[in-house]
Amino acid sequence: xxxAFVNEDHAAAQASxxxxxxxxxxxxxxxxSGQAQLHARVAELNALRSEQVALGERGDKQAxxxxxxxxxxxxxxxxxxxxxxxxxxxxxxxxxxxxIFADENNDHTQVCLVGEDQADVAVGLINWASPLGxxxxxxxxxxxxxxxRPAGDAVIEIVRISVTPSA
Length: 167
Known about the structure:
The chain is an alpha/beta fold. About 35% of the residues lie in helices and about 20% in strands. Strands 5-4-3-7-6 form a five-stranded mixed β-sheet. A two-stranded parallel sheet has the order 1-2. β6 and β7 form a beta hairpin. α2 (about 30-55) runs antiparallel to α3 (about 60-80). The termini are far apart.
């Protein structure tokens, strides 16, 4: 196609439009701390947006588009949030439970089931709807459950369920 038929203004506008963040089809269960994190993120994004608006024409249009996208995402997540009650019982794994499980090599791992936006694997916060979260949800101490992983299924044993992380 000849360049003569390309609307450069339209092409430039599309190139700078941020890719929309997908919204999960799963129910948006969150812990109380997860809800607080969503509120904090919305407040932070609103503050950053206000800074860009105050810059007027000197503002970064791409940064503003990214902020609008992220703000819309987190406002929607906050509006759809279903706060789960704090964990008080340890009979079975639920959202907010801290769990220690052992794999086939008897290596122990500690995780906490949380909402999708609160998940942070680096600190042991696991999305309740992830394959590991689904395997753990509803299990009791001593249960062996199948964890369906991309690397292949694994059987893990629930060693301990608690309200707080173990030291």
